[in-house]
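Standup notes
- DV: blocked on the single-chain target, sequence here:
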Amino acid sequence: MKAIHSVLLLITVVFLFSTSALPQTPRWTEQKANDWYQQQRWLVGSNFIPRSAINELEMWQQATFDLPEIDKELGWAEGLGMNAMRVFLHDLLWQQDPAGFHRRIDQFLSVAASHRIRVIFVLFDSCWDPLPQLGPQHPPIPGVHNSGWVQSPGAKVLADPAQYPRLKNYVQGVVGAFANDPRILAWDVWNEPGSDTTGSYPKTEMKIQEKIDRVTALLPQVFEWAREVNPTQPLTSGVYEVDVSADENALEEIEKIQVRESDFITFHNYSWPESFRGEITWLRRFHRPIVCTEYMARALGSTFDTILPVAKQEHVGAINWGFVAGKTQTYYPWESWQHPYILDQPPVWFHDVLHADGTPYRQAEVDLIRQLTGN
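- DV (later): unblocked, structure below
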C-alpha cells in the first residue's frame, strides 16, 4: 500500500508540474454555457451528506467513509427522480491523504452514477466552524442545527498566505484528476464566500472585515487555479442575499467576482416564492443558465410546494438543503443555536426530506417531487 501511495503522490506532483505551463481555459462564453445547459435534464436534487456524518471531514475520511450508507441514500434520491447532488469536499482531506481521497471520490462518483445522479462538488466553504480538525469529529450538540459543520479553509489557513500554495495543490489536484469526468456536473469553487459566522463562533471566527478582505483576494485565484487544469465541467460560485432592488453595480465585491467568474449563475434563496421568482428575474440580466444550489427552509416560506413548481416553470435547477435527517441535524432551524430544541421539537422541520429510515417527513412533498421530475 505504501508503494501505491507513493506512486500516486508522484503522479500528482508530475501532473501539477506539467499543468503549470498549460494555457488557462477562459471563462465560458454565454453561448457555450447555454448550450451546455440545454443538454442537461432539469436539474433537481439536494445538498448531500449521509446521515452518518456530521460534516464533510467525517463523510470523507477513511475511517468513517460509509459507502453502503451513501449507496442506500442515493438510491432513495433516484427513487424520487433526483438527478443532481451538491457535495462538499475539504482541503485538509487532500493534505492528509491525497491518494485515498482521490480513490474515495472515485468510489462516490461510481455509486452516484449507478443511480443516474451527477455531482456538483464544492471546493471551499466559509460557513460554520472556523477551526476544522482532522480525525474523529465531535458528536452533534443536542438540539442544534449543523453543530459540527466546518469551514474550508479554516481561519488559521485563510490568515496565512504561506499556506495558499497548499490550497492551490488541493484545487488543481482534485479538479485536475477529474477534469474530464462526465459523472461530475460542475465545480462550485466556494460556498457563501466571506460568510459571517461570528454569531455562532464568536471566540474563534476571524474579524468579519478581515475575512471578507482575504476571501475577496483569494476567490479570483481559486477560479484561476481551477481553470489552469482545463476542466471540461463549468465553474460557479453561488451568490446569496442579493439586493434585487438595485442594479449589478450595487453588488458587493465578492458578488461581483462570483458573477464575473462563473460559467453559469448559481444562487441561494431561503425565502418566499415571490422572492425566489424575483431573484431569478434579476439574475436573467447575465444571460447565463441559472441554478439554485440552496433553498427549502419550511419555517421561512421556502418549501417544495412553493418553490419547486416555480423552478420548473422558469427552467431553473433546484437543489435543496438536506436530504436524510442525520448527524447534521439540519431539520432544526438556524435559531436553534440560540434556543436548542432539547425538550421539544420544532413545529415543522427546517430542512431535510427523509427520516433516517428513508420514510418521508411529509408524503405530499415526495409525491410532488416525483410528479414534477416525471418519476
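- Follow-up: Strands lie at 44-47, 84-88, 118-125, 184-191, 235-236, 239-240, 265-268, 290-294, 317-321.
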